[in-house]
Design brief:
The protein is an all-alpha fold and 207 residues long. It has seven helices and no strands. Helix 5 (86-115) packs across helix 6.
């Protein structure tokens, strides 16, 4: 009940408590505004509630939205910098106001996912599955990689360069689809964010 009351009014709760967000801060930097720290803290609780506090899903969803908060920290630091021109500070303030509105709408999505099993819950589940798949996704047109074994001698056959085989038409087509899929998925996510006025996080693919 306490969580439901908290999530139902994110702006009212954003000024209560704070949490230290350390990636963008240095030891000499001034503390972040209490409203931002409490908003981040509320967001952490909301992500856990949206997936019924499942540890792996909670950690992956928090990692998905962490870049959005890191970028907001960078904007806050620019606004606090005395060297920032007044015109630039006004632009940053408008951006931050829009960002807060998007995060509030995202909190509503997470709250709906926590209390019902409808479309919002399916969205959070699909986001978790997308992050999970992104960890092992690789270009099917590339040759397979074997783990390096340091106990082998330098002249071991495993270290010899093998001739590169030409890709088959099927492999070339799969590679093309693989390279286009992130852009297509990004466009779909961007349209969803624009339509709903919220944030669906950002992923980074392993190379």
């Amino acid at each position: 009940m306490r969580l439901c009351r908290t999530l139902s009014s994110p702006r009212a709760c954003s000024a209560r408590r704070g949490i230290h967000l350390g990636t963008q801060e240095t030891t000499t930097a001034s503390p972040l505004p209490p409203t931002f720290r409490s908003l981040y803290r509320l967001f952490l609780r909301a992500t856990a509630a949206s997936v019924l506090a499942q540890p792996e899903a909670t950690a992956r969803l928090r990692k998905l939205w962490r870049p959005a908060f890191d970028h907001a920290v960078h904007i806050i630091r620019q606004m606090e910098d005395e060297k920032t021109p007044a015109a630039r500070r006004d632009v940053l303030a408008r951006w931050y106001s829009r960002w807060e509105a998007r995060i509030d709408n995202t909190l509503t999505l997470l709250y709906s996912s926590a209390i019902a099993r409808g479309m919002p819950h399916r969205v959070t589940q699909n986001l978790y599955r997308m992050i999970q798949s992104n960890q092992v996704l690789r270009d099917p047109s590339l040759p397979g990689k074997k783990p390096w074994r340091g106990q082998l001698p330098p002249d071991a056959p495993e270290y010899k360069v093998k001739p590169v085989k030409l890709l088959s038409p099927v492999q070339r087509e799969l590679g093309q689809h693989f390279r286009c899929s992130p852009r297509i998925l990004g466009e779909v996510v961007g349209m969803a964010e624009g339509w709903g006025g919220l944030s669906l996080g950002r992923t980074q693919r392993r190379r």
